Amino acid sequence: NIDAFPAILDKIKNNTKNIISVKKYRDFVIDTESLCDEIQKIKHFDNIVNLNCTDEMLFRPYGVFAEIISQLFNYSQNPVLSKLNDFSNFGSIDDSNYLADFINLNKRTFPNPEDCRYSVFDIISTIFLNLKNTLIIIDNADKIDDTSFEFLQSLFRKFSDLDVTFILINSNNFAVHKHSHFLLSCKEYSEFTLKKTKIKHIYSKYLS
C-alpha cells in the first residue's frame, strides 16, 4: 500500500487532472481509505468519492453512477431513508425523474429502453461537466457493470471538458483502455502495475 501511494500522489501533484489505472493481483488489497487520507493532505480536491465495486453491482445497470452521485449529493439508497432524497435541484435536466428512480432503486418500465439510456447518459454527463475539483476512486473497477463502463468510456472521451480525476483499481487482467484505445494517447492517462515483492526485500527495507 504505502509503496504504491507515492507514484499516485506524484501524478496528482504534477497534473491538474488524471485518469489513473492501478493494476494488481486479485489477492492484493489497496487501503483506499488511507489513500484518501494521503490525498486529502495535498488539499487538491474539494470532493472525494471512494467507491468499492461488488459482485452484485455487475448486474445493476448504472450502479456505479448511482453510487457516485449518491456520495456526491448525500443521497441514501436505503429503502426507508431514500424517501427523504430531494432531487429538485436536478429538475431542469431531468424532468422524467430518471435520476430519482435509478438512485432510489424504483422499478420502472420503458417503452423505448434505448431512449431512456441516452436520456440517463445526458443527465450524468451534465452532472459531471458541472463538477469542480473532484476525485473519484473506484476500487475493483473490473466489477463495473457494462452500462456504467460504457458511460465511463464516453466521459473519458470528454475528459478535456471535465474537472475530475479518476483512479481505477482493478485486477491485472483487466485493462481500462481495452475498449478505449484513445486513452493510450491521452497525456492525462497513466497505468501502474503492482508486483509482488520478495519477503526478504521487505525485511531489508524496513529493518535496515
Explain this structure to me?
By secondary structure, this protein is of the alpha/beta class. Helix content is 36%, strand content 15%. It has 7 helices and 5 strands. The chain has helices at 5-14, 32-42, 63-72, 98-103, 113-129, 146-157, 199-207, and strands at residues 19-24, 47-52, 134-139, 164-171, 189-193. A 5-stranded parallel sheet has the order 2-3-4-1-5, sandwiched between helices. Helix 6 links the parallel strand 3 (134-139) and strand 4. Helix 1 (5-14) runs parallel beside helix 2. The two termini are 19 Å apart. Residues 199-207 have low confidence and may be disordered.
Count of helical regions: 7
In percent terms, what proportion of residues is strand? 5-15%
Strand order of the largest sheet: 2-3-4-1-5
Proportion in helices: 25-40%
Features:
7 helices; five-stranded parallel β-sheet; alpha/beta; 208 residues; disordered C terminus
Secondary-structure map:
Elements: H1 5-14, E1 19-24, H2 32-42, E2 47-52, H3 63-72, H4 98-103, H5 113-129, E3 134-139, H6 146-157, E4 164-171, E5 189-193, H7 199-207
Helix pairs in contact: 1-2
Can you give me a brief rundown of this structure?
This protein is 36% helix and 15% strand.
